[in-house]
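Tutorial, part two.
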Amino acid sequence: MPAPTRSSGDLLADRRYAWAEAALAEGDAAAASDLAAQVLEIAPGYAPAWLLLGRARAADPAQRQAAADAFRSVLVLDPDDALGARLHLAALGEGEGDGAANAEAISPAYVRALFDGYAGRFERHLVEGLGYCGPALIRAALERLRGPDARFGTVLDLGCGTGLMARALDGLAGTLVGVDLSPGMLAQARRTGRYARLQEGDLRGFLEAEPAASADLVVAADVFIYLREIGPVLREAARVLAPGGLLAFTLQGHPGERGAVLGADGRYAHGVETVRDDAAEAGLTVAALEPAEIRRQNGVGVPGWLVVLGR
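Running the prediction step on this input gives:
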C-alpha cells in the first residue's frame, strides 16, 4: 500500500513536518533538512518525511548521495512509489538505484495519487492556467484528415481524465470508452455522461483486454508524457484498431531526434524519429506528425508533437 501522507500519527512530528515544508518553500534547505530529520527521529516510518529530507539535501550538491539515500528509504516504505521518489532519484541521475538513469521514473501509483488529488481543480487549472489545447488539436487534425462530417463508431480515450477529450469529440464519436489510472478523474468523467464505459487501469493493460480490430479511433491527449516507452502502447493500439482506424495523440518533444528525456517538470519528452520508429514497428502509417505547442508552462509554450497514425 502507498505510504500515508496526511499524518505521521504523532502530533509533534506533524508540526515539525509542516515547519520543514515551510522552510523548504522559503528556500532554507538546511533548516528543512534539520526539521525533517527531527520528524524521522519521532516517526522513522513516515515516508513523506524521508522524501522531504531528500528534497532538502538535494539542494546542496555536497549532499547528493545523502539525498539519494533518503529517496531510497522512501521506496522501502512505499514500494509502489505513490510519492514519486523515483522522479527525484532520476533528477540525481540515479534512476531506480540500479544505475539506469530515468528508468521507469514515473510509477502508475504516483500518477494515480497525483491526479486523484488534482481531479477537482484539474480542468480549470489545465485549460485556464496552462492553456492546454491537446483535445482541440486532435479534433482539428481528425477533421483535416477525414473531413468535418467524419464519424468514428467506437472510440477509446486513453488517460481520459475528467473527459476533456470526450467533449472535444462531440459529433465525431459514437460509442466512447475511457480508461484512467485515477478514480478521482474517472468520477469526474462519469459526470459528463459521455462515456458508454469507464475503466480504471493502465493504458497497456486496458488495450490488451480489448478485442482485436474493435475500435475505429484511439486517442491519447497529453498522456504519453508519463511514459518513457510508447512503443508497447502503440503496438497494442494497432492490434485493437480496425482497418482504416486512426490513433491520434499529443506528446512533448525535445530537440534531439531520438529517445525520451525526463524533464524538470516530471514529464517525458520524445524525439520525433523515435515516434516514427515506434509507429513503423507497430505497423502504423504516419498520417500527420507536426510540431505543436501543447500547453504553456511558466508563461512559455511547451513544444510537442501532434501525431495521427493510421492502421
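The mean pLDDT is 84. In part three we will examine how such features are distributed along the chain.
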